[in-house]
Specification:
D-Maltodextrin-Binding Protein, domain 2, four-stranded mixed sheet, five-stranded mixed sheet, 444 residues, cell membrane, alpha/beta, 2 domains
Length: 444
């Protein structure tokens, strides 16, 4: 699941596998919850706790409603994890869990359609930049019963990504960002800075031989966010929530884009001549030494390069740590669920340290749980630990609806800068005005 490609994020998300679309499995019934009403569930906390005899009680005193059963939507690729964690949950709380396959990017749309009729899953898995759409439509219950535990356990970026308009809705379970892939037979040591990248490329890049020191999608804002954000630029102010504060043409953003321009020396080709297939082919053949990309390429690159594959954080920009986009994959609880306590308990149970380590072992994801990130299982994996390290220096993609208005203007500005030597300030000023116009048009 490429965050940009879906206009979502991935940003989090499975770190070793891309998330591909898959159809819903079965007839869409809500795990036998045929009595579900067409009114959102009340946020009554422990007051509506059932009396399921034999059901263990959490430390907060929350128990599942009597007779509770749950349906969870999950991607085909990550179903193995959900089967394992659901089995553990059922064994502990005596609540049966049914799994229906549905790609996370499709879940908010289906929840919009099926939530009010009682046919949607009780617990959904969504990329965090879909959160604003779901929360603003009152499709999700806030994460209230386990809010403090969730905030304490997880990274700040994942909490921001799980919140909308200051309220915590999600239960973060995995993070996604980009990193620097490199061929160890060509690059003996991962470059620490983009100055190092340029120095190496002067000895390697040869356009006549279609050989380049580094390659990435230079016309795609998702991959170029470090050049915008690392010296203080940003998309929307107030942690991505203020649509009227756009920082794409700020002093820091323009300074970073000057480094972006310098890198044309390492990659002297047009933006339109770079796409994932071309880049992948050149990297696997050894004609590209370094590639800025995400975990969706990990499988193919490991198979092709084996021990020669290295992954490292994005090099620094003008001495500043590179800030990338992150996507957070989160659980959400359907506001129309018949069993809100049980659903919230499941979402919490499936995002603990132990659960996130199981997800990593099963799928290869990067945890958001801070203790899991420090666990030897993560630290000893050179690939996952590199993504985890970069994820700590990332910003969640904004989840407000106006985020959808950003991509086209910026993805037009970047090629103007790269291909046509447009002034970065003028190009980004134009993009900002276009975004504002779109925002104003959408609100009218």
């Amino acid at each position: 699941m490429k965050l940009k490609k879906m206009m979502v994020i991935t940003a989090a998300c499975s770190m070793a596998l891309s998330i591909t679309a898959c159809g819903a499995n079965g007839n869409g019934n809500n795990g036998g919850n045929t009595a579900a009403t067409n009114a959102p569930a009340e946020n009554t906390g422990t007051d509506n706790a059932g009396t399921n005899s034999g059901n263990a009680v959490t430390s907060e005193g929350v128990v599942p409603e009597e007779g509770a059963t749950l349906t969870v939507w999950e991607s085909k690729e990550e179903r193995a994890f959900t089967e394992a964690i659901a089995k553990q949950f059922t064994e502990k709380y005596n609540v049966p869990v049914k799994i229906e396959e549905l790609a996370p990017p499709d879940q908010v749309t289906k929840l919009t359609q099926d939530g009010p009729s009682g046919l949607a899953a009780d617990v959904v898995v969504i990329p965090h930049d879909n959160l604003g759409k779901a929360a603003s439509a009152s499709l999700l219950l806030p994460n209230d019963l386990f809010a403090e535990e969730t905030k304490t356990r997880n990274t700040e970026a994942s909490i921001i990504g799980s919140s909308y308009e200051g309220e915590l809705y999600g239960y973060p379970r995995a993070a996604e960002t980009v990193a620097l892939f490199y061929n160890k037979t060509l690059v003996k040591e991962a470059p620490k800075s983009f100055d190092d990248v340029l120095a190496f490329s002067k000895t390697f890049t040869d356009k006549s031989k279609n050989r380049y020191g580094i390659m990435w999608e230079v016309g795609n804002m998702y991959f170029n966010y470090p050049f915008i954000a690392s010296d203080g630029g940003y998309l929307f102010g107030d942690n991505g929530t203020n649509k009227d504060d756009i920082g794409l043409a700020s002093e820091g953003a323009i300074k970073g884009l000057q480094t972006f321009v310098k890198l044309k020396e390492a990659l002297p080709i047009k933006s339109g001549d770079i796409n994932p297939d071309i880049k992948r082919s050149l990297f696997i053949s050894g004609d590209v030494a370094m590639d800025i990309t995400g975990p969706w390429e990990l499988g193919a690159y490991k198979e092709a390069l084996g021990e020669s594959l290295g992954i490292a954080p994005i090099p620094t920009i003008d001495g500043k740590t590179s800030i990338t986009f992150s996507g957070i994959k989160i659980y959400g609880v359907n506001s129309y669920t018949q069993y809100p306590n049980a659903a919230k308990m499941y979402a919490d149970f499936a995002t603990t340290k132990e659960a996130q380590l199981l997800l990593n072992k099963t799928i290869g994801s990067v945890p958001t749980n801070k203790e899991a990130l420090e666990d030897p299982q993560i630290k000893s994996d050179p690939y996952v630990s590199a993504f985890a390290q970069q994820a700590t220096n990332s910003q969640p993609m904004p989840s407000i609806p106006e985020m959808g208005n950003v991509w086209s203007p910026v993805n037009a500005a970047l090629p103007e800068i790269w291909d046509n030597n447009a002034d970065p300030k003028a190009a980004m000023d134009k993009a900002v005005q276009q975004i504002k116009d779109l925002n104003n048009g959408a609100s009218q």
